Amino acid sequence: MSTDAPVSLVTGANRGIGRETARQLAGLGHTVLLCARRQEDAERAAAELAGSAGAVLPRRLDVTDGDGLHALARAVEAEFGRLDVLVNNAAIDYDTAARAIDVDLDDVRRTLDTNLFGAWRTTQAFLPLLRRSARARVVNVSSESGSLASMGGGTPAYGVSKAALNALTRKLADELRAERILVNAVCPGWIATDMGGPGGGPVEEGGASVVWAATLPDSGPTGGFFRHGRPLPW
């Protein structure tokens, strides 16, 4: 199925910021590949978003599974021939009770495998399809927990993984600048989701921050770190 609508892929999109990002992109007419680790979770979320201006298509994707990533990339190539927007949203382990001085490093390694290497693997797997787009955008969903300017103790696995994701954003943006592929990191802010917990802002607000970066004009920034369209300190 080829489409003239923008084709967007969102990882970890069965709930929270990912689901809301998928909803808003579909509302703008994008064909959205809504990805989750379990097919049934992707199907449930896609069914909940049925009726959007754009199609929402469920896809199984575990960003720690390299073979699965490349299989999905081949399927997207066969179906659409390109990818216009990649949102690296999948993340785990907001480890608020842990401390760097004694955290289990196996837990840190597991977090990095999803939050950093998952985004890295996914971008590499889909880069050939992004290069076929006339307006490719990559958005790495990050967190102010990864900002070196304000970083303190606590949340060691999550914070270090997001700081590393920010560094990856800079590397990718610089290397892809000449190809006009815009790559940015976005902190949605403290949002009331399963990961963020109660008391945060509305999920629509966090999703809008991601969608802003996913729909930047060709003159838009690349290699930046933003919340609500405004720069954040690294």
Please supply descriptive tags for the structure shown above:
single chain; 234 residues; alpha/beta; 8-stranded mixed sheet; 7 helices; 8 strands
Task: Describe the model.
By secondary structure, the protein is an alpha/beta fold. It has helices at 16-27, 39-48, 66-80, 105-115, 117-130, 156-176, 203-214, and strands at 7-10, 31-36, 56-60, 85-88, 137-141, 182-186, 225-227, 230-231. An eight-stranded mixed sheet has the order 3-2-1-4-5-6-7-8, with helices on both faces. α2 (39-48) links the parallel β2 and β3 (56-60). α1 (16-27) crosses α7 (203-214) and α4 packs parallel to α6. It is globular and about 50 Å long. The chain starts with 6 loop residues before the first strand and ends with a strand.
